[in-house]
Design brief:
By secondary structure, the chain is mainly α. The protein has 9 helices and no strands. It starts with 5 loop residues before the first helix and ends in a 13-residue tail after the last helix. The chain folds into 2 domains: about 1-55, Homeodomain-like (Arc Repressor Mutant, subunit A, Orthogonal Bundle); about 60-214, Tetracycline Repressor, domain 2 (Orthogonal Bundle). Helix 1 packs across helix 6 (about 105-120) and helix 4 (about 60-80) packs parallel to helix 7. It is elongated.
């Protein structure tokens, strides 16, 4: 028996939307964004093209939704508890997120693609990226500042500026990963950058191996 209540209809619509996104992610990975059509994605999920357009008006809307999904995945990973009493908690969170990105190379490629669109203030991507970037920078800066207040990190450092630097390095490495054809060790280079920061910000001045448990 089909649930025809508003809640049931919403659940069906949400599940269909996620199936479309899954199919688009696979298609973009295997055939490339430019070579994929909405009709291809519709066939993969057993819908008509108008059926897909009911959820995503254009292919660019699909790309934007995948970028938003990636932000959500990273935010969820960042909220996972990490035990680190040595002041490296925020560094370890960023290292975990970099590893997550590296495990989903097709999303890394799409992220770089949609970043170019976000540079246009009139684009839908611009609002999404501006809002999410500020949220990410707030989270990173707050993590550093909490450990500084606990006496684990040096308190004379501008941690909001450092948070922006970390985001810029991560984004730059993703672009270089795409330009290298996926040969760049994105996760490894991200970890090296974060480990380089450790003795600069830790009150102890200790070096850190982020690949080892805290």
């Amino acid at each position: 028996m089909t649930d025809s209540s508003p809640r049931g209809s919403y659940t069906v619509g949400r599940e269909r939307r996620e199936r479309i996104l899954d199919a688009a992610q696979r298609r973009f990975r295997d055939a490339g964004y430019a070579a994929t059509s909405l009709a291809d994605i519709a066939r993969d999920v057993g819908l008509t093209t108008p059926g897909v357009k009911h959820h995503f008006e254009t292919k660019q809307h699909l790309l934007l939704a995948l970028a938003e999904r990636r932000f959500d995945l990273a935010a969820a990973r960042a909220l996972e508890p990490i035990e680190a009493s040595d002041g490296t908690r925020t560094l370890r969170v960023m290292n975990d997120v970099a590893r997550l990105y590296a495990s989903q190379p097709e999303l890394m490629e799409l992220f770089v693609l949609v970043t170019a669109a976000a540079a246009d203030p009139s684009s839908a991507a611009h609002h999404l990226f501006a809002e999410r970037y500020e949220r990410v920078i707030d989270q990173i800066a707050t993590g550093f500042e909490q450990d500084a207040a606990a006496g684990l990190l040096r308190d004379e450092i501008d941690y909001r500026a450092l948070a922006r630097e970390c985001v810029a390095v991560a984004d730059g490495l993703q672009l270089q990963w795409v330009l290298s054809g996926g040969t760049l060790d994105f996760a490894g280079m991200s970890r090296v950058h974060l480990e380089r920061l450790a003795p600069i910000i830790l009150r102890s001045g200790a070096t850190v191996d982020l690949s080892a448990p805290a």
